[in-house]
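Duplicate of earlier report; 5-hydroxyisourate hydrolase input re-posted below.
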Amino acid sequence: MGRLTTHVLDTAKGQPGSGITIEIFRLAAGHREHVGEAVTNMDGRCDVPLLEGEAFTPGEYELVFHAGDYLRVQGVEDDEPRFLDVIPLRFGVADSSQHYHVPLLLSPYGYSTYRGS
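Output:
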């Protein structure tokens, strides 16, 4: 069964990014549909897949990571507005029977992502 998962790692501190709110959107024909929300646990992961089974279909998606709130809690000082606050990641799903793992590697002034397994 296909599923969508994520994992947030704080690369500046070398630890999981816990307590980060993530919104999930499905994109289609100029429309952005909110399909879910999750919060990372102490391991920087979500307790259940973001989407799976019939809810996970081919198409374009966006994960929105509320990183600024996490960075504030971690005591990272920055001018307002913050350099990084809300981080949107858009990606395509061609085969929804597969596992799409979309991690976020986060630091106060940069981030990266990739498709993992």
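The helical segments are 67-73.

Merging into the original ticket.
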